[in-house]
Structures are given as C-alpha cells and as structure tokens.
Amino acid sequence: MSLATSPGTEREPTALPRWIAAIIIGAIALASLTALLWPMLNRPAKVTDAGVIRAQIEADGAAGRIGATAPDFEWTGTDGQTLRLSSYRGKVVVVNFWATWCAPCREELPALQRVAASEPDVVVLEVDLMEPGDKARSFLDSLGLDRLQPVLDSDGATTRRFGVLSLPSTFFVDKDGVIRHLELTAVSEAQIRNGIRKAR
Questions:
Q1: Each residue of 55-92: pLDDT tens digit?
Q2: How many CB atoms neighbour CB 165 within 10 A?
Q3: Is 88 helix (H, G, I), strand (E, B) or coil?
Q4: What 3-state class would DSSP assign to 179?
C-alpha cells in the first residue's frame, strides 16, 4: 500500500483565520507603541516644566482686589505634583508679580527672601511675567533666593486675571484665599511684614 498522494491532492499548510492574525498584529503594534511611549508617560515632570502655569481655575467673584478671593491657577511643582494657589489654604500666601528686567523687582527680592526665611508658615510665590523658565530660575539661583517659589506666567493670563498693570505688584492672601492687602510698587521688608499681618 502506497502512502504517496496523487498529483493535485497535496495538503497546503493551514492558514490562520484572519481575525486571529488581526489580533496578533494589533497586540504587536500596541506593545511597540507602549515601549516607545512608556518612558515619556512614566517620567517625572522635567525641571523645565516645573513652575509653568498650565491652567486658570475659574470661580465666582475671584478678582485681584482687596476683599475678593484671589484668582486661582495651577502649575506643576518641582516634584511633579500638581499645585494650585488654593493648595495653600490655611497659610498666608504672598503673590509677587515680577520679571528679571524690572529693576525695582530685583531690589525687593532680598527683602522677600528674608521674610520667607523667617516666616515658615508663609508661602511666597514669585510669578514671573512671560520670560523663559531657565532665565527666571537662574536669576533667582544666582542671588541665592531659595525660599521663594518661582511660578512662570508664560502667556500673561494670571497677571491679567489679577489686574496687574505694573511690576512689581504684590498681593497678600489670607488663609481662606481672600486678598487682604496689596502693594503696587516695590516693597520693603517692613511693608511685606505689614501685608502679612493684615492677611493673618
């Protein structure tokens, strides 16, 4: 008995059903995409991302005037954590609008640093108006201003919401997020302490 097959009756290899092939190809594509994107998705925020205001938080009655709730905004902290001005409820916050090109701003920064160093329950946010982050941070670092938290208003939206018309401008926000005092010129250490006292 011969096991040979007659011509034309040879078996062709069995092909995978199309749906199984599609699943395998899709899984390979997904694995490749994940391998490419995972380092970006799983990374902490870059230092250059940190401090850049990324959202304006709307609230009824928020305005840059005494007695109003301070306009809220959101940024990424140096540790990658999402922060908002309202994250500091329970503390007095000094919001100082400045820029490296502003001579009076540069003159008041050491006074802000001294107050921040001596008042651990007070947060001092330095909102830089529309400058590159590296420029603002290197400027603060060069003066050893390590108690001031730089926040970058890259499009000027936060500055506009506070109604700032000139630099420097400083807002003193109480523990409930309400503006209690403001200064529209360069401030001395005594003026800063007075503003904090009004916000307590």
A1: 999 999 999 999 999 999 999 988 889 999 999 999 99
A2: 9
A3: helix
A4: strand
